[in-house]
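Question: what's this shape?

___
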Amino acid sequence: CVKTCLSGEVRFNRARRVRNLLNNTENFAHANWTTAKAGTGVTPIKTPNYAADPEGNMTACRVQWDRGAGTTGSDYSFLSQSAGVTDNATDSVRGSVWMRTTSSDPVTLWFRVGNTTSGSIITLDSTWSRYSTAVISNTTTANAFFSIGAYSTSGSTVGDILIWKPLLESVTGQTNQNPSESVSNGVLSSPF
């Protein structure tokens, strides 16, 4: 079964089409990666190429946030990217990213994908692990987001973590909705 492909896209039999909806996934200094804060939250700090990633290269980005003392929906501090693609009310998206803490102390964070404010609450330790979350968007058509940090009472008030290789992909209609191991920022097209 072959899904609809883009013009010139390489096709594989029995392979699921994967397209990373995020841009500049290995360049956290790029303006696509924005920091957001409100209420008692402090502007998060992102430090690209801060530490070794799981493959041993110096491409992991350090993210530090401080939500402050507030616990309302107006109190937050997080790193985010709008995928710049429309996420329909019934679309399913899955986000995944490699993460770990910068110390031996565990950190809890809010991990959001799609166009809702609800997200998964994930606790990290000092070991690199790939975390993922999925959502069927429950709002009207809007841009799909990928966000990590603290929001309201979700996530540690203060966090200091490393992230690497974020992925946001549409899994609408896919039987296999596990996060992909192959990440592309666009698609491979011929000639290649």
Remarks:
- The CA atoms of residues 16 and 176 lie 8 Å apart.
- Residues 182-192 have pLDDT under 50 and may be disordered.
